[in-house]
UniProtKB/TrEMBL annotation:
The lineage of its organism: Eukaryota, Viridiplantae, Streptophyta, Embryophyta, Tracheophyta. One of its GO terms (molecular function) is kinase activity. Coiled coil: none annotated. This is SOMATIC EMBRYOGENESIS RECEPTOR-LIKE KINASE 3, BRI1-associated receptor kinase. Residues 1-23 form the signal peptide. Residues 24-63 form the Leucine-rich repeat-containing N-terminal plant-type domain. Keywords: Kinase, Leucine-rich repeat, Receptor, Repeat, Signal, Transferase. It holds the Pfam family LRRNT_2. Residues 77-170 form the Disease resistance R13L4/SHOC-2-like LRR domain. InterPro entries: LRR_dom_sf (IPR032675), LRR_N_plant-typ (IPR013210), LRR_R13L4/SHOC2-like (IPR055414).
Length: 234
């Protein structure tokens, strides 16, 4: 009997330990970010990694299951870099880090944040490419990466995000074409301005109007569209 009680106690202790470690995983991910940034205004002072979860930390919001849904740190005067661990916040919906002094690259692991609705990294000092993995963010509505120093091309994968309402990549050093896709047409032109992008391809509907004949115009439009995509995919 005594033996049974001690086994039970040991089990309860072990389970408790496991659940605490699991509960801390998101806190650990955020703490990895905290120790990687310079925080002169002490915006992250309340981020105590010894607490059971990060839900009471300032500018962090959790759901009822104590899983992080928001990180609101716009205008916090943070310097330093993002960390791949941020990709572990499985229920994160809002990652707001705009108007800081964050440098380095955007971790491709952010493509694992499949609950993300808003990714706001504008007005920072980010370099390197826009990760192709961001195309996996199927719930994303706001993607604002403007006013950084991002290079490379705009990933074609972004055109598969049907939920996207706002895409702003203006004021970077992006090159190449704006992906030709119906899902992007309503976003031009301000969202892409002040980069080193090629001129946007002609829009077929303009050809239809100027020809004065809708049938011929539609054919001209289709040919333009076809050759544009042939050039792009060649
Ligand atoms: C961060 O939290 C503080 C205190 O709750 C609040 O005053 C501030 O507006 C928050 N910052 C952002 C960007 O939400
Ligand atoms: C931001 O931090 C820098 C030090 O890195 C400091 O000089 C500056 O005053 C801070 N700006 C604000 C608005 O707090
Ligand atoms: C911005 O970050 C860079 C490098 O990370 C640093 O040298 C600079 O002092 C920071 N500027 C401010 C205003 O904090
Ligand atoms: C997150 O993304 C990276 C790179 O995109 C990948 O290698 C990694 O396996 C992913 N991690 C999880 C837990 O899904
Ligand atoms: C973004 O960058 C452009 C070009 O340098 C500048 O004119 C604009 O004021 C910047 N936006 C903000 C909000 O600072
Ligand atoms: C382009 O847009 C269509 C729908 O407008 C979508 O089905 C497709 O996945 C998008 N992307 C590519 C790369 O074709």
């Amino acid at each position: 009997m005594e033996r049974l009680i001690s086994v039970c106690l040991w089990l309860i202790l072990a389970l408790n330990l496991v659940s605490r470690v699991a509960g801390n995983a998101e806190g650990d991910a955020l703490n990895a970010f905290r120790i990687n940034v310079f925080d002169p205004n002490k915006a992250l002072q309340s981020w105590d990694p010894t607490l059971a979860n990060p839900c009471t930390w300032r500018n962090i919001t959790c759901n009822v299951d104590n899983s992080v849904t928001r990180v609101d740190l716009g205008n916090a005067n943070l310097s330093g870099q993002l960390v791949p661990e941020l990709g572990q916040l499985a229920n994160l919906q809002y990652l707001e880090l705009y108007s800081n002094n964050i440098s380095g690259t955007i971790p491709e692991e952010l493509g694992n944040l499949t609950s993300l609705v808003s990714l706001d990294l504008y007005l920072n000092a980010l370099t390197g490419p826009i990760p192709t993995t961001l195309g996996k963010l199927t719930k994303l509505r706001y993607l604002r990466l403007n006013n950084n120093s991002l290079t490379g091309q705009i990933p074609m994968s972004l055109t598969t995000i049907m939920s996207l309402q706002v895409l702003d990549v203006s004021n970077n050093q992006l090159v190449g074409d704006i992906p030709v896709n119906g899902s992007f047409s309503h976003l031009q032109p301000i969202s892409f301005s002040n980069n080193r992008l090629n001129n946007p391809p002609p829009i077929p509907s303009t050809a239809a109007t100027s020809s004065g004949d809708t049938a011929i115009g539609a054919i001209v439009g289709a040919v333009v569209l076809f050759s544009a995509s042939a050039i792009i995919f060649a």
